[in-house]
């Protein structure tokens, strides 16, 4: 049985690190201990000629070794898979990416992993773009053994929170949150965002949040209090706000993510972030708020925008990658350099993209991708 209090405390620390990046090394040490391993890291891996970069690590392992593992073993887009990178929040062990017997024969294992007693790693994608992926990885020592079901289960428990904390950290800059421009910072968030007290009274709502309330659909304001259209969800929200207002509220297991269904059947998700623990307390102090509620379309946690685009226009994985790279890095020469392919190949894929999407120019492709985007930050 998992220790619920231990997990709850770890989740609270994860959200603290989302707003205070200097806390990530200590939090990653706690994550490594929880999942089972000597070290963990938040890192990115580029495609084509772009290498890996370690955003934060827990220490204990040579960063060069981590980079070599990522560059050597993590192949998120093998041709047989026909998929664009890997599924978000899906734990992957080394054996999921390469036969383990082959891994033991690699130069990386013999020269880097084996001398340090490392036998495996469990990684998962937190975000992905045309030119790379952001990941969480936990490394396994020979004393831990290779990745097992218990490690996968524990990884799945924390992955949504790590991904959410990283996204919220991008959306809400604590420096801005402590200044007079705090409200402007919230208005720059593409999700509906509400600051509430322990009774659910609305202390502040950003522009998107005000529009949600004005529609009086799945969320509304009753007597100044945030009210969900569904009675069960409303009760869960009240409970989450009450827990956040208590001294022990720390972003625990229950009430973190709640479903909201509009009258037309559209599905949304509400995430409750307590503001009463650690660095998060500062963000709500000016409003006497105990929690922030983020509301966005459920698609953000289901199929990612790239996957939806590919399905809508029947794009191949390479066509999708070129499309997103055009939006992210520019013209054909830049895309070719970023993805490690020839200019002529990029131009061929661009012609097919224009045919499939009906776009006529670069700006049309940018607009198409923008219309499918459903991220936390504008």
Describe the structure.
There is one protein chain. The protein is an alpha+beta fold and 378 residues long. It folds into 3 domains: 4-171, 2-Layer Sandwich (Beta-Lactamase), CATH 3.30.450; 180-301, Beta-Lactamase, CATH 3.30.450; 305-372, Arc Repressor Mutant, subunit A (Orthogonal Bundle), CATH 1.10.10. Helices cover 46% and strands 20% of the residues. It contains 17 helices and 12 strands. The strands form 3 sheets. A 5-stranded antiparallel β-sheet has the order 2-1-5-4-3, sandwiched between helices. Strand 4 (118-129) and strand 5 form a beta hairpin. The chain is flat.
How do the helices and strands line up, and which of them pair or pack?
Blueprint: H1 4-19, H2 24-35, E1 39-46, E2 52-57, H3 63-73, E3 92-93, H4 94-97, H5 100-103, H6 107-113, E4 118-129, E5 132-141, H7 149-171, H8 174-177, H9 182-187, E6 192-196, E7 202-205, H10 207-215, E8 219-222, E9 225-228, H11 231-245, E10 257-261, E11 267-274, H12 280-285, E12 291-297, H13 305-313, H14 317-329, H15 332-339, H16 343-357, H17 362-372
Helix pairs in contact: 1-2, 1-7, 14-15, 14-16, 14-17, 15-16
By CATH's scheme, which homologous superfamily of the largest domain applies? Transcription factor LuxR-like, autoinducer-binding domain
Helix-residue proportion: 40-55%
Instruction: Give the topology string: H per helix, E per strand.
Output: HHEEHEHHHEEHHHEEHEEHEEHEHHHHH
Largest sheet: 5 strands, antiparallel
Quaternary structure state of the chains depicted? single chain
Estimate nothing, just give the exact number of structural domains.
Answer: 3
Can you tell me the CATH architecture of the largest domain?
A: 2-Layer Sandwich
The overall pLDDT average reads 76
What's the CATH C level of the largest domain?
Alpha Beta
How many H/I helical runs? 17
Trace the largest sheet across and list its strands. Answer: 2-1-5-4-3
Q: Strand content of the residues, in percent?
A: 15-25%
The N- to C-terminal Cα distance equals 41 Å
How many strand segments?
12
């Amino acid at each position: 049985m998992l220790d619920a209090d231990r997990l709850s405390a770890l989740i609270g620390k994860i959200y603290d690190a989302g707003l205070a990046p200097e806390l990530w090394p200590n939090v990653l040490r706690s994550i490594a201990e929880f999942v089972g391993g000597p070290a963990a890291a938040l890192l990115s891996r580029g495609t084509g000629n772009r290498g890996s970069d370690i955003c934060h690590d827990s220490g204990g392992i040579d960063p060069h070794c981590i980079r070599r593992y990522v560059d050597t073993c993590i192949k998120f887009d093998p041709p047989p898979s026909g998929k664009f990178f890997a599924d978000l929040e899906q734990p992957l062990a080394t054996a999921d990416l390469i036969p383990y017997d082959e891994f033991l024969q690699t130069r990386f294992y013999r020269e880097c992993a084996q001398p340090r007693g490392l036998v495996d790693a469990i990684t998962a994608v937190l975000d992905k773009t045309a030119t790379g992926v952001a990941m969480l990885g936990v490394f396994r020592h020979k004393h831990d053994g290779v990745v097992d079901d218990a490690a996968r289960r524990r990884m799945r428990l924390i992955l949504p929170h790590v991904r959410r904390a990283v996204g919220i950290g991008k959306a809400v800059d604590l420096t801005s949150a402590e200044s007079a421009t705090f409200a402007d910072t919230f208005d720059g968030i593409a999700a509906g965002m509400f600051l509430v007290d322990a009774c659910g009274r609305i202390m502040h709502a950003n522009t998107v949040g005000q529009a949600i309330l004005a529609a009086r659909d799945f969320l509304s304001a009753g007597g100044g209090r945030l009210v969900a259209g569904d009675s069960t969800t409303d009760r869960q929200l009240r409970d989450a706000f009450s827990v956040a207002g208590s001294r022990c509220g720390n972003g625990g297991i229950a009430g973190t993510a709640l479903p909201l269904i509009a009258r037309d059947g559209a599905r949304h998700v509400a995430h409750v972030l307590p503001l009463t623990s650690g660095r998060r307390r500062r963000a709500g102090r000016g409003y006497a708020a105990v929690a922030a509620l983020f509301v966005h379309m459920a698609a953000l946690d289901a199929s990612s925008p790239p996957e939806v685009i590919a399905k809508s226009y029947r794009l191949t994985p390479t066509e999708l990658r070129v499309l997103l790279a055009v939006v992210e890095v520019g013209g054909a020469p830049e895309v070719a350099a970023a993805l490690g392919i020839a200019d002529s190949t990029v131009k061929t894929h661009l012609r097919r993209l224009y045919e499939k999407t009906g776009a006529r120019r670069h700006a049309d492709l940018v607009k198409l991708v923008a219309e499918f985007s459903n991220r936390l930050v504008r």
